[in-house]
Model the fold of this input.
Amino acid sequence: MQYITDADLSNVRLVGHSYGGMVISGVADRIADRLARLVYVNAFVPENGDCLNDLVPPHYVEMFDAVAAENNNAIMLPFPVWREAFINDADLELAKSSYAKLNPHPYRTFTEAISLKQPLAQLNVGKSYVNCQQDTAMPHGYPWHPRLSERLGLFRLVECLGSHEAWFTNPEGLAKAIVMAGRD
Done:
């Protein structure tokens, strides 16, 4: 946000993936007049007062609590969990090499509530949601889309093949989906 205001940018398109949906939502709440479009890529779409843990199933919160307790209050999912839930469309070699590039995520970002002045649906900025169709990071009974995407109000839906980590498994397809979602 600071960079956008310091550089006096306008007509900006912000893309947020997963937790990044919390980030772009907070930025949009504060400087919507500088934004052209928000693009959520299998991302969390919060309401005022939500934290990430409010948007996942209770058994995920239990797992996150346990992982954070063992990892200096940071989340780094065990490989078998990450493999099946986040990069289920990759072969084992790609899954292992991409896992090796990950860093622990501070748990406080899962538990700290966001403060929004108004619902995202009321923001006067374009909104898009990219749904990677093989993403099982959220159970299909607790889906990214439409459960979270509908919080955007009027939005453009773009779908593509890929898991939560389509950045590794389908980068070209995901890039095309983001461009389509971010246009005009």
Summary: The two ends are 21 Å apart (CA to CA).
